[in-house]
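Anyone up for a design puzzle?
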């Protein structure tokens, strides 16, 4: 198993994975123009955003798992949703994140118990990739194991901690919107609120790992810059076969990041 992991990781490195460290964006690009109340979305998106409570955890796990299993391109490409064992494993992983996370919920103001969007924020540390590999090694479901291996690569290989010279970053770990509430700006507003929350908490840098094109577009609109990208067909196993090939337009994984206090970065 260890040899398979090493082949999977290092073969993808040899396939040309390189950091896409672009120049710093202009001050105008960094600024998020948002004149709305910090607790309410715009008139075109009639929902409220609030911090999650401990009692929300079961609903959050169920919501995020359902979106990932049935609608996230990478997860669907790996056929994770076809195994009940993988469903429980994915739920366990989400559940582990919540106690130490900073989660924002978008809820229907008329039905406040109805979640229409979730942004799970957390501390991103340089050892997270290794921990994902350790979790993958303990996972029985082959599809979920591959997913965790891919997530470990995305966490580690951009080297954002070294690039920004920081011990930890704020990470938007999961961004999910209800299918019947999409194209209303919920994902963008949750991302913007997460950026504001990260600043309030004292983080200096923020990252967002985007395994689908739609979340990458949201990150760009929110002012995050693409720092690293890799085509899915470069992620190959020991037989040189692609591990996952989501349908277009989801052809690349992209890692976006931004300095939350750019004037303080020299």
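Challenge accepted. My sequence:
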């Amino acid at each position: 198993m260890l040899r398979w992991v090493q082949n999977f990781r290092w073969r993808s490195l040899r396939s040309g994975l390189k950091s896409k460290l672009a120049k710093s964006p202009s001050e105008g690009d960094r600024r998020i123009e948002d004149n709305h109340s910090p607790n309410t979305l715009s008139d075109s998106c009639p929902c409220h955003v609030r911090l999650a409570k401990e009692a929300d955890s079961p609903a959050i796990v169920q919501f995020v798992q359902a979106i990932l299993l049935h609608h996230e391109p990478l997860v669907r490409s790996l056929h994770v949703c076809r195994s009940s064992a993988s469903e429980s494993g994915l739920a366990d992983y989400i559940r582990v994140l919540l106690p130490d996370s900073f989660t924002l919920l978008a809820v229907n103001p008329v039905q406040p118990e109805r979640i229409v969007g979730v942004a799970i924020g957390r501390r991103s540390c340089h050892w997270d990739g290794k921990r994902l590999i350790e979790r993958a090694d303990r996972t029985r479901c082959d599809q979920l194991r591959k997913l965790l291996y891919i997530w470990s690569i995305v966490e580690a290989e951009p080297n954002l901690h070294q690039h920004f010279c920081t011990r930890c970053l704020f990470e938007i770990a999961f961004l999910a919107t209800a299918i019947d509430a999409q194209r209303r700006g919920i994902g963008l507003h949750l991302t913007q609120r997460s950026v504001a929350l990260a600043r309030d908490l004292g983080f200096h840098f923020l990252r967002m790992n985007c395994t689908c094109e739609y979340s990458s577009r949201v990150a760009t609109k929110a002012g995050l810059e693409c720092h690293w990208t890799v085509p899915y067909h470069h992620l190959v196993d020991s037989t040189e076969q692609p591990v996952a090939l989501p349908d277009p337009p989801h052809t690349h994984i992209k890692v976006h990041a931004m300095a939350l206090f750019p004037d303080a970065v020299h």
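A detail worth pointing out: The first strand starts at residue 48 and ends at 51.
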